[in-house]
Design brief:
By secondary structure, the protein is an alpha/beta fold. The chain contains nine helices and 18 strands. The protein folds into three domains: 86 residues, Outer Surface Protein A, domain 3 (Alpha-Beta Complex), CATH 3.90.930.60; 178 residues, no CATH class; 42 residues, no CATH class. Strand 12 and strand 13 form a beta hairpin. The model has no long low-confidence stretch (mean pLDDT 93). This is SPASM domain peptide maturase, grasp-with-spasm system. It comes from Chryseobacterium pennipullorum.
């Protein structure tokens, strides 16, 4: 049946869907499906094969690889997963690497380690958050009874530009009225007696058995990849992990992540001070692409990884210390 279908399309050209991005790594490759927001890990030989057959006619490929069962298996896999399609048209434009609708926010994503000091200055801080154009905002709280604070924060953010709000809090009874807030997307409950995920009104409640001691350390796992068109456009032009992303500690100090020693300003500063000071200092590293950072440059996740590793200068360019080893495709 499969061979008959291919023979019926032998005069058509093979094309890769523009939303399917093949990425070659050192040990293995990956195909990013930006439309379905999924990633498929594949052998590097499949990436080479995919690159070789695109824009060729089906019949020519079948003739060339007639006695190669692996090639036929690859072609069947690519077709079954809808990474390729056949057409009488010889050319289709590829996805633009430059977004024509780049976000105008000064800062897109902010994590705030909420302390009593920051909560006491929350109105001023929210004014700065709005002025910076933050779209995704996460608050980490250590109160064992903080549902009231969460309601208060959500109410104060009611007229802000923030569209995606999440919280991480100690395990406690949730106020179900929170599920009615359209901006609230996720609540993480650490120190939970049981690991589970619940969804109510499109709000995810994620229960974590462990504590919060490692929640904000820059550590790679498959859940830290972001597969979509916006993320891909950013990754092709900037460093996806740190682009317009900041971490605010308990004292209000602005940095890239929890473990970084550098300080770029304070969230309680005036908006102009943050824009002219902190943001300009942070932006120096935004444009260092993963292709210029070791070992990111040989990693299959380099265009979708959101782990906030801060690149440091080396004799050969830039590098990061990552717990994922692309040479062996293993986590350290």
């Amino acid at each position: 049946m499969e061979l008959t279908y291919l023979q019926n399309n032998k005069d058509k050209y093979i094309h890769v869907f523009s939303c399917c991005i093949p990425v070659k790594g050192h040990e293995r490759g990956a195909i990013y499906d930006l439309q379905r927001e999924e990633i498929e890990l594949v052998p590097n030989t499949m990436i080479d094969f995919l690159d070789y057959i695109k824009s060729k006619k089906v019949g020519a490929v079948l003739d060339e690889f007639n006695s190669d069962p692996v090639a036929k298996q690859y072609l069947g896999f690519l077709e079954k997963n809808e990474f390729v399609f056949y057409s009488n048209t010889a050319f289709f434009p590829e996805l633009s690497e430059k977004s024509i609708n780049e976000d105008t926010s000064v800062i897109q994503f902010m994590t705030v380690m909420l302390s009593e000091y920051l909560y006491g200055n929350l109105d001023h801080i929210i004014k700065n958050i709005s002025g910076l154009g933050v779209k995704r905002l996460h608050f980490h709280m250590t109160d064992t009874n903080c549902m009231g604070k969460i309601h208060d924060i959500l109410n104060r953010l009611q007229h802000s530009r923030v569209t995606n709000i999440s919280f991480s809090v100690p395990y406690q009874k949730i106020d179900k009225k929170l599920y009615n807030n359209n901006r609230l997307k996720t609540i993480y409950f650490f120190n939970s007696p049981k690991a589970k995920v619940e969804t109510h009104n499109e709000v995810n409640s994620i229960f974590i058995k462990g504590g919060d001691d490692k929640m904000f350390l820059p550590t790679f796992n498959i859940n830290t990849v972001d597969i979509n068109t916006t993320a891909y456009n950013i990754a092709k032009n900037y460093n996806l992990a740190i682009y317009k992303t900041v971490f605010v500690d308990e004292n209000g100090e602005i940095r890239f992540n929890m473990s970084e020693q550098g300080r770029y300003g304070n969230i309680s500063d005036s908006l102009e001070e943050i824009k002219e000071g902190a943001v300009k200092k942070l932006a120096v590293l935004w444009s260092i692409k993963r292709d210029d950072i070791a070992p990111c440059n040989i990693c299959e996740f380099k265009l979708c990884c959101t782990v906030t590793h801060v690149p440091f200068k080396t004799d050969n360019g830039y590098a990061v210390n990552c717990n994922y080893n692309p040479y062996t495709a293993e986590l350290n």
